[in-house]
Design a protein that fits this description.
alpha+beta; six-stranded antiparallel sheet; three-stranded antiparallel sheet; 7 helices; 9 strands; globular
């Protein structure tokens, strides 16, 4: 596979591997020799049976991401097709963001308070409000602690958009199902699907209980949050999409201007 000092496309010099998961996806740090700065390369293995079809779809979707313009979405810079080890890889290149993921807080068994969770929710919802209000709307599709980065400026950044949504069970690019609502698992993602994933993520950061340990996303009875915020969280993670906040804008308004009974909204 890739090695330090290897140069791709006469432009990206590999520095080190940042992450590798069980499905083979890899994230590498590299130096952009044309700009003399650093980028991350996320490598996604293509299905060997339909590589050209997947490649065309991925290129189109990354071109959409390149048009995003938000201060807390790192710029998507480039894409590459790489043949390594008998596998065709699609590499997504984005600006390198120094900081740490909220997954690292969980690994350190750090729990966030209601005040911290509210602040985090507002920051993420502001980003989601931007992408949900695009024409046509864009869903992130992959919200989870590892994709929320706290930068050196103490702001939260949203990375690693889900590049595809498909009904093909053999497709190589799947996200972490524990954070996904049932309609997204059925290939019918809507803005409210991102709200669900955010709610699951916030609950995990609040309690330390991962989705795999929390079937149905049930909040512990002894959870130490206010009644209004508890209602807000429950609305975010409602299993029925029509019972959730339909957009980030509505979730944000309800969180920053809490109603007496949010369940009635």
């Amino acid at each position: 596979m890739l090695k330090p000092e290897q140069i791709l496309e006469n432009r990206y010099r590999i520095a080190k591997q940042l992450r590798r998961n069980s499905k083979g996806r890899q994230t590498w740090l590299a130096e952009d020799l044309t700009r003399m700065d650093f980028v991350t390369l996320k490598l996604l293995p293509l299905n060997p049976e339909t590589p050209s079809q997947e490649l065309q779809l991925l290129v189109k979707q990354v071109e959409t991401l390149q048009r995003l313009n938000h201060p807390r979405i790192p710029t998507y810079r480039d894409y590459l097709a790489i043949d390594e080890g008998g596998v065709t890889w699609f590499a997504v290149v984005r600006d390198y963001l120094p900081g740490f993921s909220l997954e690292e807080l969980l690994a350190q068994q750090i729990r966030l308070s209601e005040t911290e969770i509210r602040s985090l929710a507002i920051e993420v919802l502001e980003i989601l409000e931007y992408i949900h209000n695009l024409v046509p709307p864009l869903n992130h599709g992959n919200i989870k602690p590892s994709n929320l980065i706290k930068g050196q400026d103490d702001q939260i950044y949203l990375v690693d958009f889900s590049l595809v949504q498909t009904n093909n069970p053999n497709f190589t690019l799947v996200t972490s199902s524990g954070y996904l609502p049932k309609e997204q698992l059925q290939g019918k993602a809507v803005p409210a699907s991102d709200i669900y994933a955010l709610g699951v993520t916030l609950i995990e950061l609040l309690t330390g209980i991962s989705p795999s340990q929390n079937s149905g996303v049930i909040l512990p009875e002894d959870i130490n949050v206010s009644a209004n915020f508890l209602n807000w969280l429950n609305k975010c993670v409602n299993q029925e999409v029509k019972q959730r906040f339909p957009t980030a804008s509505e979730a944000l308004i309800c969180l920053t201007q809490p109603l007496v009974n949010q369940n009635s909204t």
